[in-house]
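Observation: inputs received (chain + protoporphyrin IX containing FE).
Thought: call the complex predictor directly.
Action: predict_structure
Action Input:
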Amino acid sequence: MRPTAPELTRPLTDPRFYAGDPFPLYARLRAEAPFVWHDEPGFWVASTYDDVMRISKDPETFCSGKGVLLMDLGRELPEIPGALLYVDPPEHTRYRRIVQPAFAPSRVKALEPAIRAQAVRLLDALPEGEVVDLVQAVAVPFPLVVIAELLGVPAEDWRRFYEWSDHAIAAGTQQTDENMAALAEMAEFFLGVIAEKQQHPGDDLVSVLATVEVDGERLNDGELMMFCGQLLVAGNETTRNLVSGGLVALAEHPDQWSRLRADRTLVPSAIEELLRWTTPVISFFRTATREVTIHGQRVHAGDPVMLLYASANRDEAAFGPTAGQLDVARDPNQQVAFGFGQHYCLGAALARLEGRVMLEEILDRFEDLELAGEPGRLESAGVVSGWTSVPMILR
Ligand code: HEM
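Observation:
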């Protein structure tokens, strides 16, 4: 018999739950039912830091190939070449070896001036002393123009990226004509970019990926196209919500904002703490490939497991008695917002850089962040923890 606690697990499959304050429930899960079975549609919930880490580090026992999202459960997944998130070793190792160099720290560092220019452009356009929705004005366009930069396409394309990314996410559950047409348009756009970069390579990511060879292997056009689409989805809403949620957190904790203003050396630790605090990806799934015991429970082959990063990042056993407090100087801070193990976020260095640059530029310009109304929270399928609006006055 698998242990259940329906009053604690049912909310996890209700999109409205994530638009409220989920953290009290996560605390109860960790205390009362740390590794428990959700009977509808049927998956384990891993809510402690230790279990999330242990499972993430063992892709042989807990694979990604049978789905990583709540909406993947029970579905026959199509073969998607180049979809890193859904591939297991040894194939995953091959893909990662090919794409990793394009995200090497030195390459990411080289993007800093371009990223800063985009942050400056967006922030300089903000009206000072007036209410502005920071989601639409800053958090939405910022990661999209950075991805355009990364791919070596004009920054003006960001609005199209926005639409495609939304349609790509929606197509996961609703394969409407509109969603599929947007996906086809995106595929055509990326294939055009790939063909162009193969003929006239620059120093952008697509050029690197289109020409790089590792042990005589390179990505084919289909894999490359899929990879570009994946970057758009993986690097967009996540970073958007780090920025939106990070600004809400700092506005709600004026003492932490003042500490940062007084000591800029705290910016890097503040970014780690805002990643922990906001945890933009609530959860990903794995599926057990064999029978195994976790937290004293027998997990059967084929059982899906939800890795609840948002709960792991508030686990007192890992972060001590201050786990529920925002501390921009927290050190050490082994937050798990980027996952862990083989699938550790490929864009982590880029996301950290975007977060740091945006925070530095905001600190340079504004003394005061004031919420001018209740921020809007996103209903979620258990993946993206987000904000629909953040009305703020910046002075
Ligand atoms: C705050 C921002 C971000 C967060 C919180 C985040 C979170 C994550 C997490 C939790 C995973 C692990 C998936 C798993 O274990 O199954 C992941 C993987 C990934 N992320 Fe991010 N991500 C962010 C930004 C980005 C950016 C900017 C990019 C690229 C432009 C990116 C590209 C990817 C890719 C390609 C993977 C798949 C890696 C693999 O399966 O080997 N992410 N991300």
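Thought: report the result.
Final Answer: Residues 6-394 form a domain with the Cytochrome p450 fold (CATH 1.10.630.10). The first strand starts at residue 35 and ends at 38.
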